[in-house]
Amino acid sequence: MPDPAPPSSPGPPIELSRYCVPFSPFRGKVEEATVALVSTAGVRLASDRPFDLEGDTSYRVIPGTAKGADLRYDDEHYDHACVDRDINCVFPIDRLAELAEEKRIGGVAEKHFSMGFTMAIRRMWEETVPRIVAELDVVHPDLVVLTGG
Q1: Which terminal residue of the chain, N or C, has fewer Cβ atoms less than 10 Å from its own Cβ?
Q2: Does residue 24 lie within any of the structural domains?
């Protein structure tokens, strides 16, 4: 199954810094913000193609309606003790749903994104990250929470 094609964007693209982690301070109200997750923990839907444990520069799209029980992870490069008990420690999808239900955030984005392990950092930076950013630009969350494995 091929990776999802990057969607067309309704507005100007998000700019990626070449020298640091892109960061824009959030100045809105968290109680009104839609939140998306982006992870490098190798998380995917149980029905999705597993990440290649030897190195994988692809990513998976996880719907905002997914539950932690729907997810799996593919990675041998970090300690899984916590993840084996609760996948929310690296991909807090259930916690976001709870926060939205409690009106502590405005909502859960319609899509989230996860990458697997790779040593091909340049390829990831030049190909995969811009594709995820293009998809985020369409989803247009107010906040993006980045998690690592």
Answers
A1: N
A2: no
Q: Rounded to whole angstroms, how far apart are CA atoms 149 and 141?
A: 22
Distance CA 44, CA 25 (A): 28
**Residue 14, in any domain of the structure:** no
Residue ranges making up the domain that contains 141 = 30-147
pTM: 0.82
The answer on pLDDT for 146 being more than 50 is: yes
Residue 7 covered by a domain: no
CB atoms within 10 A of CB 142: 17
How many structural domains comprise the chain? Answer: 1
What pLDDT digit, counting tens, does each position of 97-106 carry?
A: 999 999 999 9
Q: What does DSSP say about strands 34-39 and 111-115: parallel, antiparallel, or unpaired? A: parallel
Determine the Cα–Cα distance for residues 137 and 9; give it in Å rounded to an integer.
6
What confidence tens digit (pLDDT) does each residue in 32-79 have? 999 999 999 999 999 999 999 988 999 999 999 999 999 999 877 777
Whether 123 is covered by a domain: the verdict is: yes
